[in-house]
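$ run holo --ligand "nicotinamide-adenine-dinucleotide" --emit tokens
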Amino acid sequence: MTYDIQPVASHFIDGAYVEDTGGTPIPVICQVSEEQIALVHAATPEIVERALASAKRAQRAWAAITGTERGRVLRRAADIIRERNYELSVLETNDTGKPLQETLVADATSAADALEYFGGIAGSLTGEHVQLGEDFVYTRREALGVCVGIGAWNYPTQIAAWKGAPALACGNAMIFKPSETTPLCALKVAEILHEAGAPAGIYNVIQGMGDVGNALITDPRVAKVSLTGSVPTGRKVYAAAAEGIRHVTMELGGKSPLVIFDDANLEDAVSGAILGNFYSSGQVCSNGTRVFVQSGIKAAFLARLTERLGDVKMGDPLDETVNFGPLVSHRQMETVQGFIAKGIAEGARLVAGGKREGDTGYYLQPTVFADVTDDMVIATDEIFGPVLSVLDFEDEAEVLARANATEFGLAAGVFTQDIGRAHRMVAGFEAGTCYINTYNLAPVEAPFGGSKLSGVGRENSKNAVDHYSEMKSVYVAMTPVEAPF
Ligand code: NAD
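-- output --
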């Protein structure tokens, strides 16, 4: 069975696909053949205006229905996504180059989880009652209004839903701008939400680069922006939002530590390092790319890791037996190659990989460096590709200090059999999302987000509700009003 990759039109506004070929063309390039497989156009100012006007028009009525009714729409959308998982996974693979083996279990399914979870709690979002003698205060949990979501390219379906689901559950309307590198998947989320009963205008998708994102977030009709992207973009978006005192959620980059003590279960630690460095060809924000390995387990760890890399199967990501795909774009491949060259030049020991695979397609071998020191560029900068750095350490206090010696603070992980040490380590980590004896799981029930430069606010869990709603406090007098004169 074949599926259409070319979308009906570039944008989804007011409940329908909309085209305006006047916008800058955005080609979608196949990561395997390097050929164009679809084409969309960036939003023109007219398209931006239509999206904003439609969201603004639709939002109040959406907020006025009950949370249970809103939740029903979201849960229906989750069901449709699960029914169409295969088709949506094929699209995600075409958009990103990630193996179908991965996308079948990690992308549309994660979007469905978010819609189901926030659909489930939409009816129980409440304010509270505070008795003050005879008087009382009650609080109303209210929607913020029109929210803008801006996505990165590594999880286009998931990001569109992780932002849309809590926003809509709380009674907001959303305008989502996908990354220009992966413009296809968010359109399907919009189409499915509409099919599930979301009123026109409640979830719009428009395409474009940073200028389109900026046009959205500087519009006075917009109450909030949630960005998933790099720290430099985060700075710009946060500053633009600050101008209008808008709410923000920032899901930004990282350079997370993964600490493996001598007493760790070796097989689990190697699995954690693989998940935290090579899943999605390493293009995951929370990756544990600084792998601190205690001296007593280093030789065994490197031996088993390189052995397990023998099971990597690169190839056409649509082949379900392939477990390692190409990078998302030529540009990203070159960026990662630049980091690998720097690692070699700085004297890190290349243990595995390091090369491009073939002449066509953006394939880079899973790469492992050992003997990496804290000041090497491969240990300080986010690479966002399949490059794992092993750093040596001797004791707990030393490794904790070095793990935290970064401006980032997205995630951190520890592998040890010592339960006390595991909890001491996560208490000490300066990171928003921590793992003990596993890595990189992000269930919708758990808050996800970063500290320090890695972000502001949290996605997922009940926590996200506070980032998509605000409390109105209502003082009710039951007694005569006392005034001084
Ligand atoms: P990016 O920062 O280049 O772009 C992100 C998005 O911002 C894109 O949609 C882009 O068009 C838009 N944008 C760029 N400039 C803008 C501006 N001035 N105003 C408004 N929007 C603007 O990031 P990327 O290369 O697409 O994604 C990779 C980065 O995303 C990595 O740093 C990665 O760590 C991060 N990321 C973070 C998370 C997380 O949850 N913390 C998840 C995935 C990716």
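-- notes --
Residues 150-154, 177, 179-180, 209-210, 213-214, 228-230, 233, 236-237, 251-254, 285, 382, 384, 410, 450, 455 surround nicotinamide-adenine-dinucleotide (CB under 6 Å).
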